[in-house]
Design a protein that fits this description.
202 residues; Rossmann fold; 5 helices; 18% strand; globular; NAD(P)H-dep_reductase; NAD(P)H-dependent FMN reductase
Length: 202
Amino acid sequence: MVPQGSHPEGKPKMSEDLLRLGVIVGSTREGRFAGTVAGWFAGLAEQHPELDVDLIDLAELELPAVHPAGPTPELTAYTGRLAAADAFVVITPEYNHGYPASLKYAIDTAGAEWQTKPVGFVSYGGISGGLRAVEQLRQVFAELHAVTVRETVSFHGVYDRFDESGNPKDETGPAGAAKLMLDQVVWWARATKEARIRRPYR
């Protein structure tokens, strides 16, 4: 991964102008394909001159299996990363026309940390490319007072779309979609961040 505050072309990013992007990897299944999709997307996001990327892989977190009555160190660390983010991109597969239970749990363990922040989506799956999961997630994030951006990145028939090095076999379309989505996320992140400073959200 690109070091924080750096640029892959050697030009340093201006840290005071960076937006923190939380990239949430929603699948925790053994043998999942999420790592491949997340690795590719995080690499692109790190190249964006206005973003500092925090890759939040749910499979690597030790969130409690049963929601506790009070905060735990693991939950506190996780929600702290969400609070520090200015925007999010959720990477999700589609399981049985829906998104993973692990992702729903991770969303529901937080509340105010999501509010007034933009959310983008990268989805993958079979013929639908995970878009049915994304449509459901839009409703969930609307309830949490987050702003979902219109553009998405979607991989249909995902197992045939990536090469052995973890990159899309035809990267032009996915990379273009990712840039468009990230530019929208950045616009909304700056707008909502400025609005929160001027007037606290109720």
